[in-house]
Amino acid sequence: MGELRKLGITVAKSTVEKYRVRSSKPPSPTWKTFLKSHTQDLVALDFFTVPTVTFRVLFVLVILAHERRRVVHFHVTEHPTAVWTAQQVVEAFPWDEAPRYLLRDRDRIYGTVFRQRVQNMGIKEVVIAPKSPWQNPYVERLIGSIRRECLDHVLVLHERHLRRILTHYFAYYHRFRTHLGLAMDCPEPRPIQARDRGRVRAVPEVGGLHHHYERVAA
Questions:
Q1: Contact predicate 73/95, CB 8 Å
Q2: I need a labelling partner for 208 at 20 to 30 A (CA). Which of 10, 59, 132, 156 fits?
Q3: Domains, the chain, ordered by start
Q4: Is the pTM here over 0.70, yes or no?
Q5: Which of 47, 203, 30 lies closest to 213, judged by CA?
């Protein structure tokens, strides 16, 4: 349009936009592309709350590895702090196991102490936009699954009871729960059993809330 003006031809901006060919692709990599490109190097963490039968509120921190949807670490507390949260990251990644990127939201719990500890571990933080939980999709989906498949069906008595419930659920989640995003496999790969191996048996998991199925010889 500027070149036309130099030639003494005046064209409205709306006219140029009407006939200009628009690219169907975004001008820069999307958030989804970033998550997909760095799957092997990316972990995410988030908190969710659980009320007890006595109306106490417990906070659960989960740290999820994107590559195999693996819950690397979880812990429960009634009083989360930046120091406590930073220590959980240290416990999740001892020695030289720290990931390249850590995806999180903008909660105030991730204060200066937390950021310094993560930086000292050589981890680069990726902070999602304000009020955009969809930018942390895997851990949000995990929390939804925990609620729908487990916590919505039990009464939590206290902190120790909640840790025990989640320990059983994550054992089931890792070994037996299949994921569409993992080509219907589990976070810990599970072999396919041949049909001639025997009859199918249901094995209760998570106190009978779920079952896994396996073939056994007659």
A1: no
A2: 59
A3: 31-185 (3.30.420.10)
A4: yes
A5: 203
